[in-house]
Amino acid sequence: MVRLYTKDLNIGYGERLIVKDLTASIPDKQITTIIGANGCGKSTLLKAITRIISHQSGTVILDGENIAKENTKLLAKKMAILPQTPESASGLTVGELVSYGRFPHQTGFGRLTKKDYEVIDWALEVTGTAEFKSRSVDALSGGQRQRVWIAMALAQETEIIFLDEPTTYLDMAHQLEVLELLQKLNREQERTIVMVLHDLNQAARFADYLIALKNGEIVKAGTCEEVITQEVLRDVFHIDALIGRDPRTNKPMCVTYDLVRNAEQEIRQPLLSAAGAL
Questions:
Q1: Is 194 within 8 Å of 160 (Cβ atoms)?
Q2: Does the pLDDT at position 46 exceed 90?
Q3: Is residue 276 scored above 80 in pLDDT?
Q4: Domains (range + CATH), the chain
């Protein structure tokens, strides 16, 4: 089942086009991970789908409706996004930050109701951050802080959660902690998770569906077995990868890799050709 998809999406900044004629579907109640080299349009795509930025042409459809025409508060009840480097006002407690997730559900003077407090406590409990409720967000470790931000997204009570590189700046243990939490939310609560990851093996391990981008276009989309291949990784990342199997999950994994010989020339040649045509 697909509730969310894009059709012929073009996104850019000024005259520079970042994402080009992109048509993609996000499987419902699954974990979708977007991979690709730096600057390929991953974060730009996430921002456009969640309406943080506008797209130049094309459409993003959610539940049969064009999100460009959707009421902002209604849209915030359907999808939440955790940006790459979330920032909160200095001095906020964990409980206060998580309460911000209730904004789309508030009416009148915006006072928190009994239901709001119940949802906040539930989000803290699910993410294992209830013990930090009265603590300042600034006093938490990176992994703890990331779980609190996820709690805020959960408090928003959306069925779809977007995360832009949720493991950035975290050590290996905290990266695994965050990804296992997202997997648990997907499996136990059927939340649709869409995220950008740089680590290919983490993407393969935790994703049900992968979208590989290059220069704002989809090179390959599908299961981990379909996307984590020597051919796709060569095209997307310019690496010669040895693909094996994760002994614990039996999913494909990148065992080792080398730069493709003459990869730099392959990258530069289109630029040189374009310059020569001027």
A1: yes
A2: yes
A3: no
A4: 2-78+158-277 (3.40.50.300), 79-157 (no CATH)
Question: At a CB cut-off of 8 Å and minimum separation 6, what does 37 contact?
Answer: 214, 236, 237, 238
Q: Residue 143: its pLDDT value, please?
A: 84
Distance linking the first and last C-alpha atoms of the chain = 47
Angle, alpha carbons 221-217-234 (nearest 5°): 70
Q: pLDDT for 49-59, tens place per residue?
A: 999 999 999 99
Confidence of residue 244 (pLDDT cuts 50, 70, 90): very high
pLDDT of residue 271: 47
What count of residues does the chain have?
278
Res. 211: pLDDT tops 80: yes
Residue 77's contacts (CB-CB under 8 Å, 6 or more residues apart) are 104, 105, 156, 157, 158
Q: How far apart are CA 138 and CA 145, in angstroms?
A: 8
Nearest Cα residue to 251 out of 205, 187, 220: 205
Mean pLDDT of the chain: 90
If we measure between CA atoms, which residue out of 86, 93, 100 comes closest to residue 129? Answer: 93
Query: Residue 57 pairs with which residues in a beta bridge?
Result: 10
* pTM for the structure as a whole: 0.87
pLDDT of amino acid 29: 96
